[in-house]
Amino acid sequence: MPTHQEIEVPGQGKIKIPTGLFINNEWVEPVKGETFDTVNPATGEKLISVAHASKEDVDLAVKAARKAFKTTWGGNVAGTERAAVLFKLADLIERDAEKIGALESLNSGKGVRIAREADVADTVACFRYYAGLADKVFGQTIDTFGSEKFVYTLHQPIGVCGQIIPWNYPLLMWAWKVAPAVAAGCTIVMKPSELTPLTALLLCDYAKEAGFPPGVLNTVPGLGATTGDAISRHLDIDKVAFTGSVITGRRISIAAAESNLKKVTLELGGKSPMLIFDSADVEEAADWTAMGIWFNSGQDCCASSRVYVQEAVYDKFLAALKKRAEACAIGQPSDEKTSFGPLISANQRDKVISYIESGKEQGARVVTGGQKWPQSNGGFWVEPTILADVKHGMKVVDEEIFGPVIVAASFKTEEEALELANNTTYGLAAAVFTNDARQMTRVSRALDAGTVWCNQYALLHAGVPFGGFKQSGIGRELGTYGIEAYTQVKAVQQNLSQKMEWPI
């Protein structure tokens, strides 16, 4: 199979796209010659065929990564050198933001403006943030033993890291994984989602141009059951980092434990609650709620998918949210006005529709939406949907839908609101809307979530840690916590005067 193919990208003309495996800074064909197809979510039609990495291909990538870690990367280069290549990569991505954003839009179904101004811009910011941290990884000196000994700690890179990223933010999740790992001195074997591999492949050439030595970044597209499993079970991978579903996260944890007990960080699903108290600005709360659930067409792990509203403002809030649902900028991804595109696949669309039908059968009231967008024309759109008057025990309340569907119910007291919010196996994010400062502090502390927003929602920053409580994950990404996740601590104890008599 060819390692590059040409496709038509709206607004950019024909672009030559890498479709092979990127190992040791070279494009190579898969050992077994296997491929898989990617589909345009806006049309349902095939986009391009991409190499499918086998276990043997993963092994070649790991060998390249291990060699780089031992020779040209890891502890062999200064942090300032790692910073330089990360800064350069950020500059290159920013230079070609139009092209990269257009490809991200085509492959994922995002509106091209959103892909360019949010996903690409946040990717650049992430690389610059970790470039700035690359030479600021410090240990401690523990000088508390008098004249007996002196102790210090080293924060050293873990080693070869397998990284498995999802399809909802292909470019940004690539940055969240690659930037801190490279800054820490690790080397990478990356598996992008089989649904959205194109930007991860394209950016391998950018990494090479930025000065990444051979073997530092290796990319092996493929299916989770084959390529992903090979990464999770490989005996010479020191850590695996995964973003995706709870079910897959469990499989990765088992594979890691059954192989070499490699370290694991997991950023998994959510069913994030929003608590709206009667003192809140209802219109403002509706704006943030709408953004939280309908940005990226609801395909977001921290989507504001459960909303609980105090009785006095429940009807007013639903009316305000209904207006926002019906004002969503639904359209073709290539249209600059579009902010609400198709879901990623026919399977995902049908799964979301089945959840809506389940909610209706179990007694939920459809405020708006609830069906495929009438102008889908072969694409995978579902209308922005509000299901009201829901109760715990309904599938739409208990399970992650991962689509543009919000469920709503009312509450009487703060205690009841917290009980409803925390009655879930998830704990990724939450929000509280109130103009009572003491209530805001109490509720934020009591919510079981890795991120709590107060009078806003869904805004993330490269400098702020992100991750989950409960089954929403293990570990944190972003911020200084994100680079710590790619280091391990070594305690060095230097004897100054202690003697050992033998036998003891």
From TrEMBL:
The active site is at 267. One of its GO terms (molecular function) is aldehyde dehydrogenase [NAD(P)+] activity. PROSITE patterns: ALDEHYDE_DEHYDR_GLU. The keyword Oxidoreductase applies. It comes from the Eukaryota. Residues 27-492 form the Aldehyde dehydrogenase domain. Keywords: Oxidoreductase. Belongs to the aldehyde dehydrogenase family. This is Aldehyde dehydrogenase domain-containing protein.
